[in-house]
Every structure is written in structure tokens, then in C-alpha cells.
Design goal:
about 80 residues, alpha+beta, YefM-like fold, about 20% strand, Antitoxin
């Protein structure tokens, strides 16, 4: 485990992409808020957790079959709006 570096909430917000690259490379951070430690950001391997894998395989969307309409959208809207007046 690497020695954690202290990082303020503001630094984390402003440099989040770089911080995540550093974590991915093995660096650990202690996150502070107004100088008070509030959390740790560590690589997932240090926690002994498996990297998340989707429970269901990704599959393409199914084909959407449309209904044939013999009227235009404007005609349908006019009909729907006629009920209001």
C-alpha cells in the first residue's frame, strides 16, 4: 500500500481526472474538508475487492416495430386538440 497523500476537497474537485489516473496507478489519498480528514481514496486492489462486472451481458436493443399511420402528425394533433375546445 502506498503512503497516502493529503488532498483537499477543492483540489479533488479541480483535478479529479488527474487524481483518478493517480489512483489507477496505485496512489492513495486522504481527502480533507476544511483541513479535517473525511475520507480515503484508494485503488480498488488495496481493498481486496473484485472489479465490478455486469451481471447481465450487454446486448443490442431489440427492433422497434412501428404502426402504420394513414394520417399526418398535424391531423392527429388537430383531432386531439379539438376535444379541448
Amino acid at each position: 500500500m502506498s503512503t497516502p497523500t493529503t488532498l483537499s476537497q477543492r483540489e479533488l474537485r479541480n483535478n479529479s481526472a488527474q487524481v483518478l489516473r493517480d489512483v489507477e496507478a496505485g496512489q492513495s489519498f486522504i481527502i480533507t474538508n476544511h483541513g479535517r480528514p473525511v475520507g480515503r481514496l484508494v485503488p480498488i486492489q488495496e481493498l481486496g475487492l473484485p472489479i465490478a462486472v455486469p451481471a447481465n451481458p450487454i446486448r443490442p436493443a431489440t427492433e422497434i416495430v412501428g404502426h402504420k399511420v394513414d394520417r399526418s402528425s398535424a391531423e392527429i394533433l388537430d383531432e386531439l386538440r379539438a376535444d379541448r375546445f
